Structures are given as structure tokens and as C-alpha cells.
Amino acid sequence: MGIFNLFHDLSSSSSVEHNVSFDLTIPHSSRPIPHRPIPTSSNSMTRMPLEIVMNIMDVACDGADLEERSTFLKSCSLVCREWSMPAQKQLFRHVTLNTQTACLAFKDAVDPATERGRVLGGAVFSMRASIDHNQPFGLSQKTFAHAVILCPNLHELSIALYGCGAPGSDIVGSPDVLRMRRSAPSFDEETLALLRSGPRISSLCFRNWSENSQSLFQLLGVWPSLKSLVISGTAPELPDPASEPFPCALSSLRTNFQTSPSVDFFKWLLHNSSDSLRILEFERELSPIVLEYLIDTHRETLESIVLPTCSREASRALRRCEKLKRYSVEDALSSTGVYKNLPEELERVAFGLNKDTQLQSILDIIKTRQSLTAVTVHMWNGGELHRQLASLKTTCALRGIDLELTQDIRAFRSIVVRAPSVISLTV
Hints:
The protein contains 16 helices and twelve strands. It is an alpha/beta fold. The protein has a domain at about 325-420. Strands 1-2-3-4-5-6-7-8-9-10-11-12 form a twelve-stranded parallel β-sheet, with helices on both faces. It is globular and about 65 Å long. The N and C termini lie far apart (about 65 Å). InterPro entries: LRR_dom_sf. It comes from Paramarasmius palmivorus.
């Protein structure tokens, strides 16, 4: 009630009269006052420095999903003329081309005959293309190759190859095994020559969903500059007789095959990578002989390994990887004996957790490995109710270790692999 009492006191207090007078005449001065014109501008709005605008775009795109990034950058490009080109350069940095129509429109946009085309073509860093022989307006080999050579700074290239099903037998949602029985033509010499004349690709991802096992070897012969390789789908088979060993020194290899390739294939592929290979990632289980060979052969350089499951044999092989900094395994029931033998320099651990997972050995390394900075857990089949989960959270919190928990296997793999984000360019 105090504020109402204040109003009552003010209204009831005695009024006091004051005599106030104003002199509104303009005094005369002996000196003339100079006339200063007020500057006018056709655009009085203060413009934000372009460097700040670009930083805002970078920060806004960081961590956003593909659709959000694309929508945001397209909106930025429409704000004003000064924002248009920086936003378009960001938008063209990562490009996806899935149809012939989209690729032709992209080629028009990066036409080197125009200054704008040269700028946008030079901005492309990664490209994802889908060559689907089963689609009526699918991207052709030559059009794809012409698009690649228009991007001089292209470093990352992802190609998905789909074969052509027999008439009337194309069933939507058919299993991967059936899709891989479709035939697809090999890359012709003109396409390969165009690709050789283009940019020096350092990272290649090839997903082969056809029965053509030779397409991979054709592409590997195009770029001697490769450092990172991702291959999946149809398991490659060495031609007979086998060609010269793959000349590139890879630093990273990730595979996802329906069936395990032979040891001979990996000997051919990694012949010149004995001193350079640091990362091995397998989305599907390889044969024990192949996995043990790869770990044992490259144990002196391996810093990161991602496995779907870890057998006792693989666990014994991993003990000899003295430089390992990151270890990830999806299977919640994989051998946990490997953890106590992982090196002191271990920085990141990721694993699957269900209600029966033996967690104590993992808790022990979290407590003792001083270099450990991150732990990622995929919880499934009762993992969120594990009796030691609270202890895991507390231990990570006390050590200042970043703990990420998820029940989505796709999110788990994304966190572990940290694949490059690609913005889909819709044209």
C-alpha cells in the first residue's frame, strides 16, 4: 500500500506558487554566426563491416544441420547487394548434385566466362554427386566430370554409383544386396581424362551400389594426391593380374562393405601407407584375419580406430598400438579387457552401453588417463538404467571430461566420425 499512500500525500500537500517568466527574443550579436550545412546522405543507414557479416555467417553455420544452413545462407544472400556474394560463396562451398538438371544449372552458375562464375567456382571445397543409372534424369558421367573441372579448389569429392535394374524389377526400399546386383557401366576414357585434368582431390568417398567392382580402381587411378579414402558398398576384387600397388600414401581409411574384402586387396591399397596411415574406421565387421592384419601392420602409426565390435584377437592386436589416441567400438558386449592396455596418451573413448556391459574397466581408465578429454556413449537395450551410469557421469564431471550420451546410433556415429557437413545446393 506504500505507493498508494505516496500518491495521496502528493495530492494532498499544499501547493506553492512561483513566478516564472521567459524571454523568447533572439539576442543580437556583433559577429555573424557561420552557417554549417548539415551533411546529407542518400543512405543514412550505418553499414556493418563485411568482415563482421562473414564472421556471423561462419558462426551461424557452425553446428547447424544441412537444411538450416542452406535456408540461412539463402536468406542472407537476399539482404542486400553487399551480403549477396559472401553468402553465395558460403552456400557454394559444399555442393550436392543428384540430377542432370541440377548439374547443368550448377555449371551455368560457375561459368568461368563471368567474374561471378569464377568466384563461385573457386569457392567450392567439397562436392557430393550421385550417378544413378536407374533414374530417367540421372546425372551423366560426362556432365559430372565437366562440373568437377570447373571447381579449381575442390578438395573433397563424394560419389555414389547406382546400377540400372531390369525393367519392372525396380522395387523401392529393396535390400542393399539386391541393389548391388544392378549393372553399371565403367567410367569411359573421356570422363577419366576430364577428371585427371581437374583439381587435385585429397579426399575421396566412393559408395558403389552396383555390381561393377572395377569402378573403384578406375577412380583411384585418377588422383595421385589422395590422402583420405572412404569406400563402401560392393567389396572390391583385385583384377587378375593385379596392377601396380596403389601409389598414394593414405592417412585415413574408412570402409563399409557388405562382405569383407581380402587381405590381398588391403595389401595392394595400403602398400605405400605404412608410414602415413593414422586413422582406420570400419562401419561393418571385417573378417578377423583382415582386421588383425591391418592393426598389426599399421600399429606403429595408428592414432585412431573405429570398430563395430572388438573380438579378443583384435583386443590383443590393439595392445601394440602405442600411439593410439582415439578408440571407439559400437558393440556393448565387446571385450573390455582392451581398455586397461590402451596407451597413456588416449584422448577420446566411445562405446556402446547396455544393461550387461562391464563398465568398471572403462571407469578405471577415465580415472587414470590424464590426457583423456571426451567420452561418448551409445545407450541401448537398458543402457540408460545401468547401475554404474551415475558413477560414469560423476567421474567425468570431477575430471572435467566431456561426456556425450545418446540413444541414437546415427548421432553416435556422427559424433565419433565427425564427417564433413555438406550443404545441399538446390537448383
